Amino acid sequence: MTWQTATVTSIRAETPRAKSFRLRLPEWRPHQPGQYYSLRLTAPDGYQAVRSYSIASSPLEVGEIELTVDCLTDGEVSPFLHDVVEVGDELDVRGPLTEYFIWHGDSPLLLLGGGSGAVPLMCMLRHRRLALPEVDVRFVYSVRSPEDVFYRDELGEETALTYTRRMPEGWTGAVGRIDAELVQRVAWPAGMAFVCGPNGFVEAAAGLLMDAGYGPARIRTERFGPSG
Amino acid sequence: MTTRGFFGRRRAPEGMAGRLPPGQYYEEGFPVLTAGPTPKLATDGWTFTVEGLVAEPRTWTWEEAHALTPSRFEGDIHCVTRWSKLGTSFGGVSIDTLLEAVEIDPAATHVLAYCYDGYSTNLPLADVRNGQAWVAWEFEDGPLPAEHGGPARLLVPHLYFWKSAKWVKGLRLLDHDEPGFWERYGYHDYGDPWKEQRFQGD
Questions:
Q1: For residues B158 and B127, what is the distance between their CA atoms, to the nearest angstrom?
Q2: Chain B residues near residue A49 by CB distance under 8 angstroms
């Protein structure tokens, strides 16, 4: 699989520190929900920096992909994407990648996301909405505060938000870190669970899933380290 | 293609750039990457086995493995997700020491490392010999943390780090190359970071 040069067609702020970039690809390939692209920046002296970003858009959106990028303060690539990149800029990308963290369309589907871990899970939710509405899905989404919710307008009845630091006024839903009660409430007796987020979230969520009866073969995880 | 406005700001410290394989960046932390949940393993009941194409399989308990000649690795590790950590140290036992305790069938060419969580990875036998591979149970000054593969992981630092299987349980010697977990999901069978062998076909 080779590198290709994509063109930025739109940029949307998801939160004060996350933006979604739509890229038009000359050699678009259908991806599977959960896959990612590598993105490469090249300096005038040839120095390169490469990072990987999950695809947020459904593969039914032919010709383009959407990557949502959380801005890491001490990062190299994500602050550049946030502060410098504009519509019309060209970026080198390679993908779609990973054969593992992929939803193949099976039902029921359980998604557990922490922070920007919502990105590949949103790809699954969007693809379900467009192509497989009969699939039963539940999405637990852990965020620090109301400003940190990605894709706010697209979250529906399938989503249970939990706020770990500050909740919206009048909130009656879950608060605090994901716990056994919340996981017991959303666990399905069958099907896969996809867990994505910072390592601490993934460790906790995967452990709670196992306590709720999910065997390791039903759990797929994707973790972010302190990189970016 | 040069990227408009990009000049780079996370280059490796002075004198270290030559230690970064192509496409890797310098990382001071130690990111955790695992396909599934972290298994909880006690050292009571932990064993490590060398089996397959050997005259007699051999199994060591935690205490028996610790009674072997200790060996340390000091150097750099490279993850396929593009971070490299320079100047790490791990302690454990050399795979050479374990292989000396068995009689290897001359037909053996490869090993499959298999793990407590069902993970596996394949390597040429030659790549785990001659001081190139360890079963490691110490990271820097302490016990290897569970999220990094503790109680013990395979350590093969000259290949991408997914070959350094966490929660390793044994090595099976084979007369052929048999893809392991990530290799079946499209990752390279060998994984040389200096040749950027990330995916099948690289």
A1: 9
A2: 6, 8, 10, 25
What is the value of pTM for the model shown?
A: 0.85
Q: Does B2 touch chain A (CB under 8 A)?
A: yes
Instruction: Compute the distance between CA of residue A130 and CA of residue A119 in angstroms, rounded to an integer.
Output: 17
- In sequence order, which residues have a C-beta less than 8 Å from that of residue B142 and are 6 or more positions away? none
Q: Residue with structure tokens 């073969």?
A: A217
Complex prediction ipTM? 0.84
- CB < 8 Å to B82, chain A: 50-52, 227
Tell me the chain A residues in contact with residue B36 when contact means C-beta distances shorter than 8 Å.
206, 216, 219-221
Residue pair A14/A108 in contact (Cβ under 8 Å)? The answer is no
Nearest by CB to residue A203, choosing from B31, B38, B118, is B38
Task: For chain A, give the mean pLDDT.
Answer: 94
Q: How many CB atoms lie within 10 A of CB A207?
A: 16
Backbone region of residue A185 per phi and psi (left: phi > 0; alpha: psi in -120 to 50; beta: other values):
alpha
Report chain A residues whose CB lies below 8 A from the CB of B23. 48, 50
Calpha distance A79→A116 (Å, rounded): 15
Token pair for A192: 């896969």
Q: What is the pLDDT of residues A91-109, one digit of tens each?
A: 999 999 988 999 999 999 9
- The pLDDT tens digits of the residues spanning B107-165 come to 999 999 999 999 999 999 999 999 999 999 999 999 999 999 999 999 999 999 999 99
Cβ(A53)–Cβ(A71) below 8 Å: no
B27:A227 CB<8 A: yes
Distances (CA, A) of A51 to A67, A81, A129, B82, B122: 12, 11, 29, 7, 26
The DSSP symbol for A132 reads -
First to last CA, chain A: 23
The answer to whether B5 contacts A44, with C-beta atoms less than 8 Å apart, is no
User: Measured between alpha carbons, how far is A82 from A84 in angstroms, rounded to an integer?
Assistant: 6
